[in-house]
Amino acid sequence: MTPPATPKRPGFPVRLEPDAGTPSATKKVAGRAHPERASGLFDMKIPAKAAVSSGVGLDSRAVRTRMVQKLAAQGISDAQVLAAMGQVERHRFVDTALVNQAYEDTSLPIGLGQTISKPNVVARMLELLRQGVASPSAKLGRVLEIGTGCGYQAAVLGQLASEVYSIERLRGLHDKARENLRALRLANVHLLFGDGMLGYAKGAPYAAIIAAAGGEAIPQAWVEQLAVGGRLVAPMHMAGGAQALVVLDRTAQGVTQTVLEAVHFVPLKSGTS
Ligand code: SAH
Fold first, then answer.
1. pLDDT mean over 217-232
2. pTM score, two decimals?
3. Dihedral, CA atoms, 159, 165, 169, 171, nearest 10 degrees?
4. Which of 120, 269, 270 to mutate to test the pocket of ligand 1 (most atoms within 8 A of CB)?
5. 107 is catalytic
6. Which CATH number do you get for residue 203?
7. Is residue 220 part of a domain?
8. Residue 3 falls inside a structural domain
9. Residue 156 lies in a domain
10. Number of domains into which the chain is organized
11. pLDDT for the residue 26
């Protein structure tokens, strides 16, 4: 897939309040949230535009069905997650040279040193998110995703949630995701450019928060923006350096944290570039 040159972006329907100096430094910040600073985020509604045929020359539905069967065999049991993964055309989100690997259970480069997570990890995290909702047959409410990357997981979330706010700190990937998602016409997926470590206060509280990049701790802003009864799933570095998946549930009594299996995500970084 060779996306056409990105047209100049239209106006930004939503803009956060001006702040007192968002840092331009890209130093990794561990466990520090800056709820008072929340600018630099722009809401991008995906324009409703005609879909373009991908022309990849593979029977993608059949290949996706096989991917879904494999996910089920690996233990993913949530019917809605499996249906959503069967729906979204993953090959549209990777470079042309990688299209034939799009449905393999592997992470793939998406540019700027970042990767699209492997299907099994995406499905696992989405299943965990949905297990956190009161009624598993219901859709998730508003969801915040940190790390849009190529936009694949945001598209899958778009099938599972009423609204998706997805933030990316690298302009090049934010633009790429916008291009990738345009054809899908997902009116409930909102792409934002900014530092996701600050969350996105305008959309809060969130029924669910999911991060595709791992830091030393869960930023306080995320916890604050999680609804009571909501669930957060994110990779996090443990003492010793290894990364693990962490589930955080916010209840009226407080916050509970569960550490699950080891994972390998790109680092969570502060600032934008
Ligand atoms: N869900 C994505 C995976 C992208 S990889 C997909 O489906 O393609 C994780 C992404 O997190 C990278 O693009 C990286 O730039 C981004 N990231 C890292 N720290 C961030 C931050 N503080 N705010 C927003 N995005 C961040």
1. 97
2. 0.81
3. 70
4. 269
5. no
6. 3.40.50.150
7. yes
8. no
9. yes
10. 1
11. 32
Could you tell me if the CB of 222 is within 6 A of ligand 1? no
Q: Which residues share a beta bridge with 116? A: 108
Q: How far is the CA of 253 from the centre of ligand 1 (A)?
A: 31
Instruction: Give the position of tokens 């350096």.
Output: 241
Could you give the CA distance from residue 143 to residue 161 in angstroms, rounded to a whole number?
7
Whether ligand 1 lies within 6 angstroms of the CB of 213 is answered as: yes
How many CB atoms lie under 10 A from the CB of residue 118? 15
Question: Structure tokens of 233?
Answer: 């799933």
Q: Which of 169, 176, 179, 210 to mutate to test the pocket of ligand 1 (most atoms within 8 A of CB)?
A: 169
* More confident site: 77 or 9: 77
pLDDT band at 204 (very low <50, low <70, confident <90, very high): very high
Tell me the pLDDT tens digit for each residue of 131-170: 987 676 789 999 999 999 999 999 999 999 999 999 999 9
Distance CA 190, CA 184 (A): 13
Q: Is residue 36 assigned to a domain?
A: no
- pLDDT band at residue 50, thresholds of 50, 70 and 90? very low
Q: Is pLDDT of 39 > 60? A: no
With contact defined as beta carbons under 8 Å apart, do 262 and 243 qualify?
Answer: yes
Q: How far is the CA of 54 from the centre of ligand 1 (A)?
A: 25
Kindly indicate the confidence band of residue 124, based on its pLDDT and cuts at 50, 70 and 90. very high
State which residues form the domain around 218. Answer: 48-263
Q: Which atom number of ligand 1 is nearest to the Cα of residue 152?
A: 7
Among 257, 247, 270, 246, residue whose Cα is nearest residue 167 = 270
**Nearest alpha carbon, ligand 1 atom 19:** 268
Looking at the DSSP assignment, which residues form a beta bridge with residue 140? 161
* Pocket of ligand 1 contains residue 168 by CB under 6 Å: yes
Please state the rounded mean pLDDT for residues 195-211.
Answer: 98
Instruction: Catalytic residue, from 60, 117, 166, 270: name it.
Output: 117
